[in-house]
Amino acid sequence: MPTRVVFFLLPKLHLLDLAGPAQVFSTANDLGYGYDLTYVAESAEIVTAQGVPVKAQLEWPELGCADLIVVPGWRSPAFTPTPHMSAMAKHRLRAHHAAGGSVASVCSGADALGAAGLLDGRRCTTHHDLTDELAARYPKAHMVRDVLYVVDDRVITSAGIASGIDLALHLVAAARGAEAAARVARQMVVYARRNGDDRQESAMLRHRGHLSDLAHRVQDIIDSRYADQLRLADLAAGVGVSERTLTRLFTTATGLTPLRYQQLLRLERAEHLISHGTTVEAAARAVGFEDARMLRRLRSRTIPA
């Protein structure tokens, strides 16, 4: 029997919070892994945060313990005073979980699970802009910060927007095997299936909030060639400044020297490979270290700015 996945849609939902995981399960079904998708709401049409109307059915299908309810997130970075859902909807979420089913959320969808009482005593996460608010709203929950998703007793919560894809791929892997999830990811042209404890923000994002055009251009070079041996002189020549000027401007903009930034990218990628079963030695070679000693040193401490 196929696994039924019910998306419970709330007003102002984010399109990608819905479309990302829906695409994963739809693609899995296309590949023969058996998923049946249903979209339910408390009104026949939901207007998304992006202004696109989405049709949904009002009647809930019959669900079994192998089935899944997913609540996509809605307009952030702040929660609404209360989730726009009825007492009956909260009961539906609680009853499905009590009957042995799984319930998941993307981004601010965790608020709906909290309102249904499903976060109490459980580990959970949400978008990094919402973690403090969610923790304050549901003090009995155990907030896990800066991770992609958390699984606790068939309650699965994920971070914002694109992390819904990671969550859905994890659920496909858990139910149908890692090969199935890999096939889905490849079909969707997803670069890599990330683990739940991977950080929400990659180094490429954390150090891109500045307004220095020169630093961004240098980062573009390093991002695309982080495994190569990049000489400071070549980076400086590539953007038309002296090595001293490059170092000064880059450090002012990012808080890191070019070398430290490259090391951070290498370390982050190596950690991802190791978390998926690659040996430290193989991961070191893959990201450009001559041997594993430097990688081990970097893993044992925080890279200073």
TrEMBL record:
Residues of the HTH araC/xylS-type domain: 216-305
Transcription found in the keyword field: yes
UniProt keyword annotations, A-Z: Transcription, Transcription regulation
Residues passing through the membrane, by range: none
Signal peptide (residue range): none
SUPFAM superfamilies tied to this protein: Class I glutamine amidotransferase-like, Homeodomain-like
Pfam families reported for this sequence: DJ-1_PfpI, HTH_18
InterPro entries documented for this protein: Class_I_gatase-like, DJ-1/PfpI, Homeodomain-like_sf, HTH_AraC, INH-QAR
Entries under PANTHER family matching the protein: ARAC-FAMILY TRANSCRIPTIONAL REGULATOR, HTH-TYPE TRANSCRIPTIONAL REGULATOR RV1931C
Protein name, UniProt field: DJ-1/PfpI family protein
